[in-house]
Amino acid sequence: MIIDIVPVWVLFLVSIAIVLISVEIGFRLGSKVRLRKYDERESPASAISGVILGLQAFMLAFTFSIVSDRYDIKKELVREEANAIRTTWHRADFLPEPDQGKTKELLKEYLKHRVTVGQVRDPEVVRKALGDAIRMQQQLWEIAVIHGKTDLNSDIGALFVESVNEIADLHAMRVNVGLQSRIPSTIWAVLLSLLILGMLGVGYHTAIAESRRSRVTPVLAISFSLVIALIAALDHPGDKLMPVTQQPLINVLREMNAGSGVDTTAQPD
Predict the structure, then answer these.
(1) 238: how many CB neighbours lie within 10 A of its CB?
(2) Cis bond leading into 98, ω under 30°?
(3) 189-202 burial string, b = 16+ CB within 10 Å, else e?
(4) CA 12, 18, 21, 22 torsion-angle sign
(5) Closest to 8 in 3D by CA, of 162, 158, 197, 233
(6) Which of 195, 168, 178 shows the shortest CA–CA distance to 60?
(7) 265 lies in some domain
């Protein structure tokens, strides 16, 4: 999508330019109509402009609601993943050695990769961390399968299998919501179209009303552009501009290190 390529600050400036240019074009069209003494009344132009701006406001609110809800889901998924990893860590205590130690080391390394995905902004680093995390999931699953087959009636084995499966599910959900679920290009196109049409209407109505160019037009441009930029920031993949805190995962990692006698003041890799 183009939003992945264009920085949000560039989109902000482009939106301001679109508003100012559209208002100016609308004003010039209205001026020509007024100079030619066409029977153009102010009331219909005002009503049409108001309707378009109302539609624009509705679309902005609708789109913002989508990205805002998704942002809350991202935060909730981080908390759920932290709880799932903590639960798996504790249930690994019931595994015999050497699988118990291997499982706990895998979980610590897995957790470091998950924190990296949430904090690092380099796409290559994120891609590598995701690949490593998936390989560790496979290793954890192999351990779970071995102990699940050892005693099919074991409740402990079933609980451990459930925990490992939940970790994989939450990983897939975080990737889907954080990196793949995006605002459709059609909605962006509608937002842009309504923005242009609405500002054309504002400029046209200003001219028909025999008013001068308003000095507060830049304020109007900045206001609309701020909302559009905020939506783009929330929709941006990888949470580059509106990062979701990884503190729940970091807290679990510190708990693991504390239980292993590792310095908990050290930051995760």
Answers:
(1) 16
(2) yes
(3) ebbeebbbbbbbbb
(4) negative
(5) 233
(6) 195
(7) no
In a domain, 228, yes or no: yes
178-212 pLDDT, tens digit per residue, is 777 888 888 999 999 999 999 998 888 888 876 77
For 29-45, write each residue's pLDDT tens digit: 888 877 766 555 656 77
Domain of residue 8, residue span? 2-256
Q: Is residue 129 part of a domain?
A: yes
CA–CA gap between residue 209 and residue 223 (Å, rounded): 23
Count Cβ atoms within 10 A of the Cβ of residue 204 and give its class: 0-12 exposed, 13-18 middle, 19 or more buried: buried
Query: What span, in angstroms and rounded, lies between the C-alpha atoms of 226 and 7?
Result: 14
Distance between alpha carbon 104 and the CA centroid of its chain, in Å?
Answer: 31
Helix, strand or coil, per DSSP, at residue 55: helix
Q: How far apart are CA 70 and CA 127, in angstroms?
A: 22
Termini Cα distance of the chain: 31
Asked whether the beta carbons of 196 and 29 are under 8 A apart, the reply is no
| Contact assessment for residue 121 and residue 244, using Cβ atoms and an 8 Å cutoff | no
As a three-state string, the secondary structure of 202-253 is HHHHHHHCCCCCCCCHHHHHHHHHHHHHHHHHHHCHHHCCCCCCCHHHHHHH
For residues 87 and 81, give the distance between their C-alpha atoms in angstroms, rounded to a whole number: 10
Within a domain: 262: no
Buried b (16+ CB within 10 A) or exposed e, 33-57: beeeeeeeeeeebbeebeebbeebe
CA 11/CA 226 separation, integer angstroms: 10
pLDDT score of 204: 86
Taking only the tens place, the pLDDT of each residue in 210-231 is: 677 777 788 989 999 999 999 9
Into how many domains does the chain fold? Answer: 1
